[in-house]
Amino acid sequence: MAARSTQTEKKQNFFKQLKSLFDFTKDVFPWLLWAEIGILVVGIWVGILIGFLLTPGVWWSITLWGLTGLLLGVLGGLMLLTRLSTKAMYEKIDGRPGATGHVLSTSLGRNWTAGDTPVGVNPKTQDAVYRAVGRGGVVVVGEGARGRLTRLVNEERAKVKRVASGVPVTVLYVGHGDDDVAIADLAKTIKKLPKAINRATQAAVIKRIDSVSQSLASLPIPKGIDPMKARAPRPR
After folding, report:
1. Is 130 helix (H, G, I), strand (E, B) or coil?
2. How many CB atoms lie within 10 A of CB 121?
3. Which tens digit of pLDDT belongs to each residue from 152-162?
4. Which long-range contacts (CB under 8 A, 24 or more apart) does 95-98 make?
5. Which of 168, 167, 185 shows the shortest CA–CA distance to 176?
């Protein structure tokens, strides 16, 4: 009985998460429902057509092929939902304070170390600077108006070069200007950086930088992003 109850709860949680993911994505893409229905219908008809061509007149076989098409349609619908949910997340957090930290802390993978808390921040304007350390070196990311970020970015870059001489430091600005990186492309841009240091050097750099980093506990950190709301929920 306990095993059945656990399985039932898992199924309920799956469908609950799936509905939450759908609602989250539909807020940005209102046409999502019709797209999902269209994929299911196309999948069914493709399955029926294949069955009719392979076994004309054998209705049980055609029906099975139709069911196969339905399953493929469900798979295609889930793939579309997953892809659109990621785009929806980026559209919802674009331009909000803290969006950069959310992306750096959740989307870079194991080869990079970054947090969602800025390493430098302007309390009045909420312009902030974030840092990521990985096989591509150190990346300093500015979030806010580029003109106001110059001092914060230069201070962070100088600090990194002082304790990690020889390690490449890349500066990126999040925004929509000609030389800026869109929030949706930030993680991809960082991951594309060529490998410049090994894991041992990476660990040493992180330790050195942390040792000289000043605590920001007394500074007002941007509160624009609630990770639980900004992240698209995914079925498990």
Report:
1. strand
2. 22
3. 999 899 888 88
4. 95/183, 96/224, 96/225, 97/126, 97/128, 97/143, 97/222, 97/223, 97/224, 97/225, 98/128, 98/221, 98/222, 98/223, 98/224, 98/225
5. 185
Q: Can you read off the two tokens belonging to residue 154?
A: 């230069």
Q: Write down the residue that tokens 């605590």 correspond to.
A: 215
- Identify residue 17 by its one-letter amino acid code: Q
Q: Where are the beta strands (DSSP E) in the chain?
A: 112-114, 120-121, 128-134, 137-143, 169-174
CA atoms 47, 53, 54, 57: torsion sign: positive
Contact 141, 101 (CB under 8 A): no
Quote the CA–CA distance of 127 and 142 in Å, as a whole number.
Answer: 8
Q: pLDDT tens for residues 167-217? A: 899 999 998 888 889 999 999 999 999 998 888 888 888 888 887 765 444
Which string of b and e fits 154-172 if b means at least 16 CB within 10 Å?
eebbebbeebbeebebbeb
Q: What does the DSSP 8-state code read for residue 181?
A: B
Single-letter amino acid, residue 194 = P
